[in-house]
Specification:
The protein is α/β, with parallel strands linked by helices and 366 residues long. It has 14 helices and nine strands. The radius of gyration is 19 Å and the shape is globular. Bound molecules: zinc ion (ZN). The site of zinc ion has 6 residues, from strand 1.
């Protein structure tokens, strides 16, 4: 267990991020480096050009957003050195953003080129298995934790549309349901992308069939008031990604953003970047957006980060350590131990995320 005490408590308050995709948080410089080194063609030669091609400034459809990954993932997937470096650099970036604790998610299968069917990104078959991808990411994260004084855990994703299936509506595939049942049995934590652009019914499925402990996005929960009230009663955590929701079209700016209701109701939610490479953002983008356009205050930022820490998948003792760190940084009394902790028994987290039109993820990691 790594101590959080090396973190400086000066300057901006510390933050907790629970919803960010490793493969959507790679540095453009690193993509260009491995594209050149491995002789893999990329759609641009400079950081600026690459950001123009893979970044977004205006809303796109979800398929348009997902297509961005195919431009750059070939440069990283299948390369042991690149995968480890991406995980390490991710923590350097998050430390600079004043993140004390991050849960980062990814699908190992998207980075492997062996024992995976299909092999993604038109890669030739190689010898990098999903298991080894997990080991490499863990190594990169552990090195990053030591170097940058940040704490990280990962969540392994499975994709709603894999393997070989087409998504119709919000139906769940038996394999995914079984994976979640096994996770429940094994004490593995679970989160699910639901209600991002999909309906409240998808959220209900995530809660009732997959027994998710958190909801990724979850904006459309509000279309079903009874479901929303039920989740509020259960203190369900919503992993909100404001800037992402604008660029993916999950939130229509002419409507009130769900996070405003969450704030007004003092609901349990966090603010997160989701895919900062593609959204050309940092965590500050999301905080500034909610502060400038939605009336969020510093007090609300503290409250939501404490809720994020409580809803993290850390074991109870490490969760308490994180809460103590936040209380200290925020100048609040360390009364966290008196507050009811959420139940989290396992060292592993399993999360299913489902981008509504068919990109589901499930995650695990120490
Ligand atoms: Zn996401």
């Amino acid at each position: 267990m790594r101590s959080l005490s090396v973190l400086s408590l000066s300057s901006a308050p510390l933050q907790v991020e629970l919803h960010v995709h490793l493969d959507g948080a790679i540095r453009p410089e690193t993509i260009l480096y491995y594209g050149r080194k491995r002789g893999i063609a990329l759609p641009a030669d400079t950081v600026e050009e690459l950001q123009t091609v893979i970044g977004m400034d205006k809303p796109l459809t979800l398929p348009g957003f997902l297509a961005k990954f195919s431009y750059y993932m070939p440069a990283i997937a299948g390369c042991r050195e690149a995968i480890r470096r991406v995980a390490y650099e991710f923590l350097e970036t998050k430390a600079k953003e004043r993140v004390a604790y991050v849960e980062v998610r990814y699908s190992p299968h998207l980075l492997a080129n062996a024992k995976v069917e299909p092999i993604f990104w038109n890669q030739a078959e190689g010898d990098l298995t999903p298991d080894e991808v997990v080991a490499l990411v863990c190594q990169g994260l552990q090195e990053g934790e030591s170097a940058f004084g940040i704490k990280a855990r990962s969540i392994l994703c499975c994709m709603r549309d894999q393997p070989h299936e087409t998504i119709e509506g919000s139906s769940l595939f038996p394999g995914h349901v079984r994976a979640y049942e096994e996770a429940v049995r094994s004490g593995v934590h679970r989160t699910v992308h639901a209600g991002e652009v999909g309906s409240a019914e998808v959220v209900r499925e995530a809660v009732d069939k997959l027994r998710t402990e958190r909801v990724g996005h979850g904006y459309h929960t509000l279309e079903d008031e009874a479901l929303y009230q039920r989740l509020r009663q259960a203190d369900m955590h919503f992993e909100v990604c404001p800037w992402s929701s604008y660029l993916t079209g999950a939130w229509k700016p002419e409507t009130e953003h769900a996070v405003i209701r969450f704030k007004n109701d003092k609901a349990n939610y966090s603010l997160n970047t989701d895919d900062p490479l593609i959204f050309k953002s940092t965590l500050d983008t999301d905080y500034q957006m909610t502060k400038r356009d939605m009336g969020f205050t510093e007090e609300e930022f503290k409250r939501l980060n404490i809720n994020a820490a409580k809803s993290s998948f850390l074991p109870e003792d490490e969760k308490q350590e994180l809460l103590n760190l936040l209380h200290k940084a925020y100048g609040m009394p360390c009364s966290a131990s008196a507050e009811a902790p959420r139940t989290c028994d396992g060292p592993w987290a399993l999360a299913a995320s489902s981008l509504p039109d068919g990109f589901a993820s499930v995650q695990l990691l120490p």
